[in-house]
Write a structure and sequence with these properties.
Length: 296
């Protein structure tokens, strides 16, 4: 595990500052308890090329097991228009952080957010800000509710058996996204995935029936070609990012968008190699200008 340390903290650690030591060390059993010990650990660690090499290029486009997720690194836009769009969702009361969302979360989650619900809200805003403003506005127009909770109760299957727990869910029946504070803390694309499901639903039928990715419904004619393309790419039985996304076109689209966001921009050619067509679909869905034009 690597923890970023800035120069000031480094200087304190070098000087043997006990408070800085307590903040940075001693949280991992068997881990280093001081800067000296940490440097020792580091000196004995295997050189990077023997442990970490070749992961991004080849490893990534091989099927991943259903549960594997990558950090999404799409840039959060900081312009006034984006800020206003996100603020409008708050003003409309569509974003709710449960009062126990942090309190009942694990310690690392609470600490990660400084025990401050406001920081949870900031993370929600930051992730929303990755997407084109017309899509953020559409969440408001179609009243998609976003709720942050400590835990999501596992759903039951048709026989009443508990399904595996999830940390994010988009419920199309009432157009709501639920995400755990833990998922927001890890920032591994869970909230992004649920947002994509919501966008897919709104762009397909304004959240009333089918999804864009299913290729049969489209709420804005400018997206018609994209909808048909996603469906035909899914139907081709190729171009899958992972096992999970073979289930249906909704997950197929979500996996593509998340992987696009997770992969380093300089490695994106790998994705283009899996499907230049899907690559272009994702690029357009994330493009402010394209989306604005398509929704006119
Ligand atoms: Zn999903």
């Amino acid at each position: 595990m690597l923890v970023p340390v800035d120069r000031i903290v480094w200087a304190k650690l070098e000087a043997g500052d006990k408070r800085a030591e307590a903040a940075f060390f001693g949280h991992i059993d068997g881990g280093p308890r001081s800067l000296d010990e940490a440097l020792n650990f580091w000196a004995q660690a295997p050189a990077p090329q023997s442990g970490f090499g070749e992961v991004s290029q080849v490893g990534r486009n091989v099927d991943k097991s259903g549960g594997k997720r990558d950090r999404v690194n799409l840039p959060s836009k900081k312009d006034e228009k984006t800020k206003a769009s996100v603020r409008a969702l708050h003003d409309a009361g569509l974003i709710h952080i449960d009062s126990n969302a942090l309190k009942q979360s694990e310690r690392d989650v609470r600490i990660g957010f400084g025990n401050t619900p406001d920081q949870v809200k900031d993370r929600v805003d930051e992730i929303l800000s990755r997407y084109p403003t017309p899509l953020i506005d559409l969440l408001g127009q179609d009243e998609v509710r976003i709720r942050v909770v400590a835990k999501i109760d596992p759903a039951k299957d048709e026989f009443g058996r508990l399904l595996p727990g999830v940390d994010g869910r988009y419920n199309g029946a009432n157009r709501s996204i639920t995400v755990t504070a833990s998922a927001l803390h890890q920032n591994l694309g869970v909230f992004d995935e649920e947002l994509v499901h919501a966008f897919d639903h709104l762009l397909g039928s304004r959240g009333k029936a089918g999804r864009l990715s299913e290729g049969e419904m489209v709420a804005f004619p400018g997206f018609a070609e994209i909808g048909k393309t996603i469906k035909s790419q899914f139907d081709s039985g190729e171009h899958f990012i992972d096992e999970y996304s073979k289930g249906n076109p909704r997950e197929f689209l979500a996996a593509w968008l998340k992987e696009f966001g997770a992969i380093d921009p300089e490695d994106r050619e790998v994705l283009r190699g899996i499907s230049p067509v899907m690559y272009s679909v994702v690029e357009r869905l994330l493009d402010e200008g394209f989306v604005r034009e398509a929704m006119r």
